[in-house]
Amino acid sequence: MTIGEKIKYCRKQIGITQDKLAELTGIHPVSIRKYETNKCSHNLLS
């Protein structure tokens, strides 16, 4: 399972949208979408 798949899985398990996850984390919604589709390779920890 990729990190994007893990993010999506966990987000769905707690029942929130990508937009809500973006709001909670301070990450732009487009970035959330890119992470979940593995189109973004930025380090999530930096």
Defining key terms:
mainly alpha; 46 residues; 0% strand; globular
What layout of secondary structure does this protein have?
Elements: H1 3-14, H2 18-25, H3 29-36
Describe this structure in words.
- The mean pLDDT is 90.
- Helix 2 (18-25) packs across helix 3.
- The termini are far apart.
- This protein has 46 residues and is mainly alpha-helical.
- Helices cover 61% and strands 0% of the residues.
Mean pLDDT: 90
Could you name the ranges where pLDDT drops below 50 across 5 or more consecutive residues? none
- What would you call the structural class? mainly alpha
What sort of overall outline do the alpha carbons produce when their principal axes are compared? globular
Oligomer: single chain
| Tally of DSSP helical segments | 3
How can the largest sheet be summarized? none
The arrangement of helices and strands along the chain is: HHH
SS strand fraction: under 5%
Distance between the termini: 21 Å
Considering DSSP H and I runs of 4 or more, what fraction of the residues is helical?
55-70%
Number of strands: 0
Write down the Rg: 10 Å
